[in-house]
Amino acid sequence: MRFSKKYCTTKNIALATILGGAVALTACTTTPTTSDTATSTGVGKAQAVQSVDLNRYAGKWYEIARLPMFFQRNCASDVTATYTLQPTGKIEVNNQCMGKDGKPMQSIGEASKNGDSGSKLKVIFLPQALRWLPVGKADYWVLALDPNYNHALVGTPNQKYLWILSRTPTMDEATYQTMVTTAKSQGYDVSKLQKTVQHSR
Predict the structure, then answer these.
(1) CB-based contacts of 136: which residues, under 8 Å, 6+ apart?
(2) Do 107 and 38 contact (CB within 8 A), yes or no?
(3) What is the C-alpha separation between 106 and 100, in angstroms, rounded?
(4) How far apart are CA 137 and CA 139, in angstroms?
(5) What is the CATH number for 123?
(6) DSSP per residue over 129-169, as a string?
(7) Strand, helix or coil for residue 3
(8) Number of domains present in the structure of the chain
(9) Domain span at 136
(10) Which of 2, 26, 61, 66 is the most exposed, having the fewest neighbouring CB atoms within 10 Å of its CB?
């Protein structure tokens, strides 16, 4: 989940509270330029699921855990992501969280399919006017997804970023451990996973 400096205004935060993860007015970060190149600490290789029905995948997801990342360093709790399909076929990405200063933070981006499977996306958080540029796009792979689309494991293929997501604010321990095991088998350093505080119940 990324947070973009572009949306750090009171007006935009007030108008865009539906989609997940963001930056507070006093805790803004810069927009990423691309997926970072990193060496995995694991032994496996990131593997996206065979296919994802993006119509079913759309909607609100709660972050259960994540690997530490710069763009979420100011998020204290209640991290969510909401995906909304657009008439163009692209997906609006709305990241939201509660900042360390107690203020809501938000960042809105756009995702597009990278291939036909729907399990590999390219996400960008640059301002709308700059999204035509061939930079700023990050990889978003769905690594695991239950048949009912209730739980998902998402990461970047370089194994640097990882998120465990759920349709509800909580996840039972058995499901969580299954996700962790899958991530570890794909080379992610699960020893650094941080559980996310969710106050919604």
Answers:
(1) 31, 32, 33, 34, 124, 125, 126, 130
(2) no
(3) 13
(4) 7
(5) 2.40.128.20
(6) GGTTSS--EEEEEEEEE-TTS-EEEEE-TTSS-EEEEESSS
(7) coil
(8) 1
(9) 5-27+38-195
(10) 26
